[in-house]
């Protein structure tokens, strides 16, 4: 309960930045990490993020159930807009518990632009709650290892 | 003294007196109370749903779930409210793997099915909930009512085909993909058949 309250307070403190970014129509690396923390019910604040050292990345990534690489590439963006595939990758990794690749996620976005495209915080919230995106999330894991042309594909 | 009279004068000569039917007043008021209470309830639900959506957009997922729950308590027979609550619980189960959220989502989808037995949405979304967790046997069972209610929906056959293919049941998956392809031109069904080495 205490954890939850702390998490809620942290998000409330961050709310003005969240709204500002919404207007800018992009998702920053920090905002993406904080949103995933909210979905995971993990306490994470902007202050905590700013004090993180590379040695702590692994532990923090594990709490968010994302790969260290996915965490790092969002962390490095800080308050700057993160590429869509970085954001989507982290959300899907956290939801599925599987490690994805940027390439696999890029292809997933290209195949399902209306379902998984994230250009702003509202769309990010939708992705977290979107059932259709959720069902195709596992396909991203397959795409992470599958060849570009499926076996037996083509005419 | 309690008998009030409404008086109207027409053409200067005819006078009509109408007695206010006091015994019927409570009946009229009671009849008016019903739509008024419905309107007040709808307004409250609308407010709660807007609040929950805003909370989700601010990544306050726990509060959003509580607000949706509150909305279901105000309008227990509203399908959309029940489904919104189920989705919020399902999302938290996906991210946290906490059984409480799973139970909440299961119960909400079950209730949604009872609220609208002819709607295919509860079955479809409930199936997706377990497909996401790769529990395909359960997902297939949950999807069944959607196919029974709407057997000519290519999307549901595609969904069934995907679950079957993902769980290694290739032959029934091909049958489902073919059924989908026969109903409509769905590129995903064609691609699914090709992936399984079959021409549509």
Automatic annotation (TrEMBL), chain A:
Signal among keywords: yes
Source species, domain of life: Bacteria
Keyword Signal: yes
Keywords, ordered alphabetically: Signal
N-terminal signal peptide: 1-20
Name of the featured protein: DUF4197 domain-containing protein
From TrEMBL, chain B:
Organism, as annotated: Deinococcus seoulensis
Protein name per Swiss-Prot or TrEMBL: Tetratricopeptide repeat protein
Record-annotated membrane-spanning stretches: 20-40
Tagged with keyword Oxidoreductase: no
The TPR repeat ranges on this chain: 120-153
Signal peptide boundaries: none
Keywords assigned: Membrane, TPR repeat, Transmembrane, Transmembrane helix
UniProt KW Transmembrane keyword: yes
